[in-house]
Amino acid sequence: MKYKTGFALLTAVFMTSAVFAVPPGRFAFVNDGNNRDSDDIAAIPVQVAMMAIFNVTDRLVHATYACDSRNGSEEAKREKMLKESLEGAADLWGKFDKSTFFNYHTQQNAAVTHLTEQINASTAESPLWIIEAGEPDLIYLAVKAAQQSKRQYIRIVTHHPNNDKGVTHDLTDILALEGMAKNAAVRIHEQNGNLKKPFSEYSWTRDHADPRVKFLWKQAQETQSTNYDPIKGDFDPSDAGMVWYILTGGPEGNGDDDCSSKKIETAVNKWLAGNTTSVWTESGSDRIHFTNVSVTSPVSIYTTDGRLIKSGLAGDIKTQGLEKGMYLIRSRESSNVNTFVSKLTIF
Description:
By secondary structure, this protein is α/β, with parallel strands linked by helices. The protein is built from ten helices and 17 strands. It has helices at residues 40-53, 75-93, 108-120, 137-145, 171-175, 192-195, 203-207, 211-222, 240-247, 261-273, and strands spanning 2-4, 9-12, 19-20, 26-31, 60-65, 101-103, 128-133, 154-158, 185-187, 197-198, 234-235, 277-281, 287-288, 293-303, 308-317, 325-330, 340-346. The strands form four sheets. Strands 1, 2, 12, 14, 15, 16 and 17 form a seven-stranded antiparallel beta sheet that branches. Strands 6-5-4-7-8-9 form a six-stranded parallel beta sheet, with helices on both faces. Strands 3-13 form a two-stranded antiparallel sheet.
């Protein structure tokens, strides 16, 4: 697989490693879970963990849960679980701005206003990836209130037709608004088949030594006490499959729409082991895990303060020998910050 940065062509070498090209842009989670299905209680912590694993915690700029505006018999109980899933995971997995988190059932106006602001902040270089993991009424209201010129920079990711149907407005209503791009909807195949599995397939989260991972199991177990029979006996983070798809490349980067328990486990353990190598372009569009990087023109590796580490490199760059930290890969032997190809983070 090949990815273009601003200056050079990067080629991933497949051995025991995988290549993930995170597209530029910011993320907004829109989850339900407060009525009818309760799987979001299990999915949200996995979504949050994925943002941490891919080192993009700062790019989650909005998250709303309980976006089903209909009243349910377990409203208060589920909203408490959903709040814990989102805020608890955020506390455990990294530096997230919890002021951008909302309960749609109790903070509708604030949620709409904030998501509108994020849409208005979008540009071609920083689009907004909206993960449609529940009824899209919030998305409709925010898009309608947003500047028409900014609507073209929205991408709405969906995997299940049930999530496309709102109480008042459907996904089709959003796509019909003036200014929406023709490719605004990013539809991947339904993720339940990949990710909704018996708890035994996720036993690694229960048995893991790290409390961050154990939290995933705990919140999935919470769903078993809700009045939703289709999830009984199953760990169902299916909505997280959309996040995985975008983080691994999305529609322009051959994203992986076949996420699985095993893939999540592998990614989590590699990240926790602290030996993950990532390569970023200026726009943050390329990320490479456990691999060498091939370039078609000579580059040099510098420290962030301009100290030359390696020069004249082409072909395979052996990143494994570098210490943990941030580096700059430049297109020529120069400490001029304007000439760098990528930021290289080893952690």
